[in-house]
Amino acid sequence: MASETRRHHHNLVPLAALISREVRSEKMEKPNVKYGYAAQSRKGEDYYLVKTDCQRVPGNCLSTFSVFAIFDGHNGNAAAIFTKENLLNHVMGAIPRGLGRGEWLQALPRALVSGFVKTDKEFQSRGETSGTTVTFVIIDGWTVTVASVGDSRCVLDAQGGGVSDLTVDHRLEDNVEERERVTASGGEVGRLSIVGGVEVGPLRCWPGGLCLSRSIGDMDVGEFIVPIPYVKQVKLSSAGGRLIIASDGIWDALSSEMAAKSCRGLPAELASRQVVKEALKTRGLKDDTTCIVVDIIPPDNSLPPPPPPKKQSKLRSLIFRKWSHDSSKKLAKKLSAVDIVEELFEEGSAMLAERLGSDTSAGQSTSSLFTCAVCQVDLAPSEGISVHAGSIFSTSTKPWQGPFLCMDCRNKKDAMEGKRPSGVKVV
Ligand SMILES: [Zn+2]
């Protein structure tokens, strides 16, 4: 092994050059973000959010990031509107202060989980019916972080890298895992049956009759319909790429691939209109149909990265493999990002303990020692209940260690896991 490595180093770009290339690409200017929005409304329950001037460090324009989101409401629009107005603040409120960019990006997946659950809890406490899907996209430089519940998709058409989904569909009809989770938590999954016992329509969850397995709101359905998002974080290559964020009005008519192909070569504004047009052509206006196209474009003054000669790239991939075996995973991952889309994070579990407890070091460095990991209220030392207490994870994790939950959030966690009957308030 050692001799092989030495040989590579002789024939190839020296390690130092690779690293300095990476440093250059890190320092490289942020990409330009251009977007277009198009929609056709039928029920008026699709909402969207575009915010291109968010700042990680308030007042520092170098820390700017963008947020794009779609909320597809059902049984009314209250949940979609409430989520549009509150989710971003709740997510940001769950990130410890004073983090550098790298730490901030690492803290995002967990903060997204907290923000989604807090928003759901707050909306439900208002006692209004209705629910919403959420597909929430944060773009910071070349790093794209997507959190989603429901079936509004975010598709990546990477420059030279092909089409891939950055979300999963939380639909009972096609998501077997979610169907099993809902059933195990006490929900019943079946179709509507009409006179004569004929079953029609998509699989739904009872009580409530929702076709989705995750959403925000929906207080009138079982609490196993959870607001815990699937989260995926990727870093694009310096060639950039295109995101297509859209509600199911698009995806019921077009595959991810079809949507991406239908608008290639068009600027974002025209592309979003083209995708909507294409979907309506196939299916007509059966549902609210909303599409945001976001282009992440290399800055004008940067040269496109020279394509490495074939031979070299083959050998480089050998080096990466070698390095990742050498537990220099981080370095290898970073270096390979020069050419391809790099997956930084992916987690879809519906278990709150798994989502909040996966990282004990990075979180909870906020001002207060005891803060509820979901709603961020301060806790007296006696009040906090470890997210791990009484769970299957308590064998591997000390139950007195954080993150902690307030009583209210602990009750919500139990309800989401089917540990108490839906709708029964614990006093
Ligand atoms: Zn709480």
Summarize this structure as a short list of keywords or feature phrases.
427 residues, alpha+beta, Phosphatase 2c, domain 1, eight-stranded antiparallel β-sheet, five-stranded antiparallel β-sheet, 12 helices, 17 strands, 33% helix, disordered N terminus, disordered C terminus, binds zinc ion
Q: What is the total number of structural domains? A: 2
| Helical residue percent band | 25-40%
Distance between the termini: 63 Å
Q: How much β-strand is present in the residues?
A: 15-25%
Second CATH tier, the architecture of the largest domain: 4-Layer Sandwich
Q: What is Rg?
A: 23 Å
Largest sheet: 8 strands, antiparallel
Structural classification: alpha+beta
CATH topology title of the largest domain: Phosphatase 2c, domain 1
Number of helices: 12
Q: Superfamily at the CATH H level of the largest domain?
A: PPM-type phosphatase domain
Folded structure, characterized:
The protein is α+β, with helices and mostly antiparallel strands. The protein has two domains: 29-170 and 212-349, PPM-type phosphatase domain (Phosphatase 2c, domain 1, 4-Layer Sandwich), CATH 3.60.40.10; 351-427, no CATH class. It has helices at 2-11, 15-27, 78-93, 101-125, 176-184, 248-251, 256-262, 268-283, 310-325, 329-336, 352-357, 407-416, and strands at residues 32-40, 46-55, 64-74, 131-132, 134-140, 143-149, 153-158, 162-165, 188-194, 198-206, 216-217, 230-235, 241-246, 289-297, 342-347, 385-386, 404-405. Strands 2, 3, 4, 5, 6, 11, 12 and 15 form an eight-stranded antiparallel beta sheet that branches. Strands 1-14-13-7-8 form a five-stranded antiparallel beta sheet. Helix 3 (78-93) runs antiparallel to helix 4 and helix 9 (310-325) packs antiparallel against helix 10. The model is unreliable at 1-10, 304-338, 359-368, 392-396 and 422-427 (pLDDT under 50). Bound molecules: zinc ion (ZN). Residues 372, 374-375, 377, 405-406, 408-409 line the site of zinc ion.
